Amino acid sequence: MKSEALLEVKNLKTWFYTRRGIVKAVNGVDFTLSRGECLCLVGESGCGKSVTALSLLRLFDSPPGKIVEGEIVYRSIDLVTCSLDKLRQIRGKDIAMVFQNAQSALNPIFTIGDQIIEQINTHLDLSHEQALEKARTLLDKMRIPEVDRALKQYPHQMSGGMKQRAMIAMSLSCDPCILIADEPTTAVDVTIRAQIMNILQELKRGREMSIIFITHDLSLVREIGDRAAVIYGGRVIEIAPVERIMNEPAHPYTRGLISCLPDVSSDATRLPSIEGNTPNPIDMPSGCPFHPRCNSVMDVCRSVLPEITNILDVHAVACHLYSGSGK
Ligand SMILES: Nc1ncnc2c1ncn2[C@@H]1O[C@H](COP(=O)(O)OP(=O)(O)OP(=O)(O)O)[C@@H](O)[C@H]1O
Ligand SMILES: [Mg+2]
Hints:
The chain is an alpha/beta fold and 327 residues long. The chain is built from twelve helices and twelve strands.
């Protein structure tokens, strides 16, 4: 693995101040991302994956959302405190995002071609013809048939899979060095899904693009990820190279997630699942947020939040089983 950290996220907390209370959606996330690396963010629905991704570019709803603590360092710039002008230069150009819901991320009143060209014109100094040619090439790379027709279409005239690929083309239009892809294959069928995964692999290898890939599908993590960060209750509770996480998961939650993977060789008729519910981000359990569901729970887990600690150079876990406090 390469060591140069392109992005460093430290103790990031993004909270939403709602009438029901404070939603601690992201509650102390730490990770680094290297050049050419694909880091997967995994975890159950509602654990804070999308809010983490949106926080990197300050794209969450604000108000009610606010980054209350933490740093996001990209090439010595703290994206939490830098000016909005600076952030706008970085958004789409250096760091681009494929949103979880392509449908709502595309503007319904402009054609796909206009939207891609607008994105290119915001950041690159190209003539209209050059921008149009770039848009054509991008859609072609996404294996969109009849590119010239697609450029003239409005989002509602496209299928879900087509919109998803157009969205990816748009995000790649300014050759970003970091692509944040939030569940980029959920709305597409298996063939398109395989194509999108191939395109992302090519970009990673060919251009050394770094990818933050968000998914709850561990088979995709195996396919594309170099490292995986498991998120629970708005925090990274385990981070390690994918092979290591899959073969030697350390946190009881990660072990549960992996054991929920379907085993084709087994004749079991029911998939195992982790008992209990994900924590309520307005009213997090005391101590370790996973303790009410944990088979290995100890007294200390009920009152003390475990810090993330290295159990190997490349493998860190936030669990009292490894911190020494429970032994
Ligand atoms: N605008 C908002 N206002 C209030 N709460 C929000 C807002 N956006 C997200 N949340 C809450 O923050 C928490 C984390 O949401 P997030 O969308 O990050 O989950 P996720 O891990 O991406 O889940 P999924 O797998 O379903 O996409 C959830 O409890 C969600 O309800
Ligand atoms: Mg999400």
